[in-house]
């Protein structure tokens, strides 16, 4: 048996070719072309958002969002993919870590409020909806309002996640998405930023094209972070089938949660948050048991990943940390299980049986 952790969505060649023919006929390959426009509109309507700017990846999405919102210092989560932190550090942003909530694994609003009460000098807050589980967006909004801070959500895991009937991307001043091949929806490499304010969107659109404005004049120095027409073609092809993809992934996710609920800890989901089936994390506190589970998965050829280990405050020791006790604890026992569109129900049952057997000893 060999069960893969992840398997990127494969675009249907017939459909993709039709879009590629359009690109060739248009003779327009990048710089906000016709397919770029269509993909932007389709994504805005599908996700229920406005002011969506496509960019070349999720890392630049974070950097451009910070630049557009004038964030030069930020309090952020230590429990996320490395890019949430490394992208900010690369940009010379002064960051400090504040701990996560022990049940949701997302940035803890109380700890954040405490950090800001001690040191209110930070410009912004950068939080991740880890595994697609929405942060406590209302509580974070309250803290942000109290201290007058901008909020960016790294929503790389949260494609099409809702809080109640509202897209999770509509919280905060900006939300960033990654359309990397390994993500739920992808354009091979790619991403997007959703801005609350049109003016921030306009500024960012200029920033991702070297800082050249609509009249061709030079403004603030920018960068090149545009998504090209060929990648938009992949996005358009995959977007057509994304409902069916998400449905299957959520079905597998729910089966995993049902099968494992009496055996392992799993993140507590936001009470109004929807599932997108992006990742399947479990937490096993006991090191011996965790190692046994890992060993048995390995023996059966089941891929898994210690995602996210280490806690980012450990990886970036020079940065200030207000608190990261929970993040360190969770990162020691976290394990992501196989979850992708091509995975079968029988695969999930195999994996959960291996885990149950390992834990029963
Ligand atoms: C994938 C990911 C990123 C980076 O996105 P890229 O498109 O690969 O640059 C950032 N943050 C999180 C949480 C991610 O999972």
Portion of residues in helices?
Answer: 40-55%
Strand order of the largest sheet: 1-9-8-5-4-2-3-11
Under CATH, the topology of the largest domain is which? Answer: Aspartate Aminotransferase, domain 2
Q: Identify the overall geometry.
A: globular
Strand content: 5-15%
Terminal-residue CA separation = 22 Å
DSSP strand count: 12
Number of helices, where a helix is a run of at least 4 consecutive DSSP H or I residues: 13
> What is the count of distinct domains?
2
CATH homologous superfamily caption of the largest domain? Type I PLP-dependent aspartate aminotransferase-like (Major domain)
- What kind of sheet is the major sheet? 8 strands, mixed
Ligand inventory: pyridoxal-5'-phosphate
- The CATH architecture of the largest domain would be 3-Layer(aba) Sandwich
Structural class: alpha/beta
- Look at the structure and give the mean pLDDT: 97
């Amino acid at each position: 048996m060999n069960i893969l952790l992840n398997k990127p969505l494969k675009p249907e060649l017939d459909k993709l070719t039709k879009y590629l023919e359009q690109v060739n006929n248009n003779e327009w390959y990048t710089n906000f072309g016709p397919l770029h426009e269509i993909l932007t509109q389709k994504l805005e309507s599908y996700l229920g958002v406005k002011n969506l700017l496509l960019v070349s990846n999720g890392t630049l999405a974070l950097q451009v969002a910070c630049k557009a919102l004038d964030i030069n210092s930020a309090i952020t989560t230590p429990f996320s993919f490395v890019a949430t932190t490394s992208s900010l550090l690369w940009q010379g942003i002064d960051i400090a870590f504040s701990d996560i909530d022990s049940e949701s694994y997302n940035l803890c609003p109380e700890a954040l409020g405490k950090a800001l009460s001690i040191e209110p000098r930070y410009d912004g807050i950068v939080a991740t909806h880890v595994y697609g589980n929405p942060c406590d967006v209302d509580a974070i909004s309250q803290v942000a309002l109290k201290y007058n801070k901008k909020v960016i959500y790294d929503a790389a895991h949260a494609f099409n996640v809702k809080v109640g009937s509202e897209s999770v991307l509509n919280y905060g001043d900006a939300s960033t998405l990654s359309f990397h091949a390994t993500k739920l929806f992808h354009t091979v490499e790619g991403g997007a930023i959703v801005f609350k304010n049109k003016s921030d969107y306009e500024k960012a659109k200029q920033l991702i094209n070297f800082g050249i404005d609509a009249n061709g004049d030079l403004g603030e120095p920018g960068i090149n972070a545009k998504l090209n027409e060929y990648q938009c073609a992949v996005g358009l092809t995959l977007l057509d089938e994304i409902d069916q993809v998400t449905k299957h992934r959520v079905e597998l996710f729910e089966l995993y949660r049902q099968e494992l609920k009496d055996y392992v800890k799993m993140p507590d989901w936001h009470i109004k948050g929807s599932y997108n089936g992006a990742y399947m994390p479990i937490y096993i506190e006991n090191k011996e048991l965790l190692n046994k589970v890992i060993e048995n998965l390995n023996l059966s050829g089941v891929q898994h990943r210690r995602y996210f280990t280490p806690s980012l405050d450990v990886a970036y020791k020079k940065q200030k940390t207000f608190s990261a006790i929970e993040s360190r604890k969770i990162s020691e026992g976290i394990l992501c299980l196989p979850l992708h569109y091509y995975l079968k129900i029988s695969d999930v049952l195999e994996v959960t049986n291996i885990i149950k057997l390992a834990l029963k000893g």
